[in-house]
Specification:
145 residues, alpha+beta, four-stranded mixed β-sheet, 4 strands, 12% strand, globular
């Protein structure tokens, strides 16, 4: 894994590295990001902490949800908003689907997101350690300090 400079403007997806569903979703997302715009880091890593601190120094990192966070030029996004912003970077039809989904009020989107997030370990399991990223996308993962 290469250390990505702090000045790299590409968005960073922070994910639960112990969640099997989340790890699979990162691989799925990377394959559908044809321009390799998205970078990745496990949420409970020093790389994630550093990324959030650079984006919003006043944000309490430990108060972030344990599922998914997107850090981009517009700030730090969580829950359904993070998912919809990630979809903007993927190939067709995902940006169009995200645009349609934005008409659903955020409280409803986030409630559905939280309901799924609460069940994800039971449905998909978890690992004790964050697995190594697949070779094809390893360079897009932020390096630990």
């Amino acid at each position: 894994m290469r250390n990505q400079p702090a000045t790299d403007p590409r968005p960073v997806v922070l994910f639960d590295g112990h969640c099997n569903f989340c790890n699979g979703t990162v691989r799925w997302t990377a394959l559908r990001d044809p321009l390799a715009r998205l970078r990745f880091a496990p949420l409970r890593s020093s790389a994630a902490r550093r990324t959030v601190a650079l984006a919003d120094p006043h944000l309490d990192f430990d108060a972030l949800p344990d599922s998914i966070v997107l850090v981009d030029a517009a700030g730090v996004h969580t829950a359904s908003t993070a998912l919809l912003r990630i979809a903007r970077h993927l190939g067709f039809p995902y940006p169009a689907l995200a645009a349609v989904a934005r008409v659903v009020p955020r409280p409803l989107r986030d409630a559905a997101y939280r309901a799924f997030a609460r069940k994800r370990y039971g449905w998909f399991g978890r690992t004790d350690e964050c697995p190594l990223p697949p070779t094809g996308i390893a360079a897009r993962f932020l390096e630990e300090d």
